[in-house]
Amino acid sequence: MKRVLPLILSVFLFVCALSYLHQKVQIYVEAYRLSINYQHYNELIDKRDYLMYNFSKEVSLDRINQWVKLEDFSPVGEERMLVLGAKRPAGTKRGNKLVSLVDRFLRASTSTSMALAEEKE
């Protein structure tokens, strides 16, 4: 027993020191990765600032306003609705209420925005 106790104690201390060293190495690895990410981030910020500076020098507010007037550009407001890909099925009968209700139920299960857009028409 007297011979085994120092051996167990030294193995235990070795395992503790090894786990501590492993944690320290992992901290340094993560710090290195983080510093590389910060470098990339700073490079991208510099590129963005450079592009914004060039854009602001070449495009003035007067040119933007002139383009808006020429193209008759207006942003989509709350009173407007934009529906893409709305197609009516070609053979539906509007007179039959049962067919209309079933068709309305099936369309409502596919997409709420499509159903609401078709309902407003």
Molecular structure report:
By secondary structure, the chain is mainly alpha-helical. The protein has two domains: 1-74; 77-121, no CATH class. The protein is built from four helices and no strands. It has helices spanning 4-58, 61-71, 97-110, 112-120. It is elongated, with a radius of gyration of 34 Å.
Summary tags:
2 domains; 74% helix
What's a quick, concise take on this entry?
The protein is built from 4 helices and no strands.
Number of strands: 0
How many helices? The count is 4
Strand content: under 5%
* Structural shape: elongated
Radius of gyration: 34 Å
Rounded to the nearest angstrom, the distance between the terminal CA atoms is 91 Å
* Mean of all residue-level pLDDT scores: 78
The count of domains is 2
Low-confidence stretches: 110-116
Roughly how much helix do the residues carry, as a percent range? over 70%
Series of H and E elements: HHHH
**Class per helix and strand makeup:** mainly alpha
What is the topology?
Blueprint: H1 4-58, H2 61-71, H3 97-110, H4 112-120
